[in-house]
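User: Fold this; tokens only.

Assistant: Input:
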Amino acid sequence: VMFLAGRAIAGGIARPLGVLTRAAERIAAGDPEVELPETERKDEVGRLTVSFRRMSGVLAAMSAVNTRIAQ
């Protein structure tokens, strides 16, 4: 029972962190249009997701401004 509970908890953390990792890799590769799912989580993973969403939005806005300036 403890094994299953530990596995469920770890999966609840590992999956969202995997999503954030893939998003960070895409952002680092120059993709400013990365979309992250909204979250209702109130833990560190939720706060990190909110921060990544905010960062991604700012980078997308900056990219749009750079594109307009370059035209």
